[in-house]
Specification:
The protein is mainly beta. The radius of gyration is 15 Å and the shape is globular. Helices cover about 10% and strands about 45% of the residues. It has a single domain, classed as SH3 type barrels (Roll), CATH 2.30.30.
Length: about 100
């Protein structure tokens, strides 16, 4: 599955791993894009306390726009998932980078 950007008719913007199904899209681990101060963007759990916050089907009729997500946002999203999907400013999320331990 690819990480896909969805803009819904109600104005919400969501990114999620998704695949096309008959009549809509199947999504997993959706994250809502939220506007923060200074024109920054953050991620938050979409529809918390529902099963759709984990996975589910979204009908085509509720979607205004679909687009591929840029690689940098994929890294931030995956780091956000790795941090437990808490609400966070993506500028504060550091992509997970493996480094060798430093020796003194």
């Amino acid at each position: 599955m690819d990480l896909i950007y969805f803009k819904f008719l109600n104005g919400e913007e969501v990114i999620a791993y998704a695949k096309k199904v008959i009549g809509g899209w199947y999504i997993e681990r959706p994250a809502m894009l939220v506007n923060l101060e200074d024109f920054k963007v953050g991620l938050a759990t979409w529809l918390p306390y529902t099963t759709l916050s984990i996975s589910g089907n979204i009908p085509d009729a509720s979607i205004l726009l679909i687009a591929q997500v840029e690689e940098e946002m994929v890294k931030y999203y995956n780091a956000w998932i790795g941090q437990g999907s808490k609400e966070v400013d993506i500028d504060e999320v550091k992509p997970i980078v493996e480094t060798e331990p430093q020796t003194k």
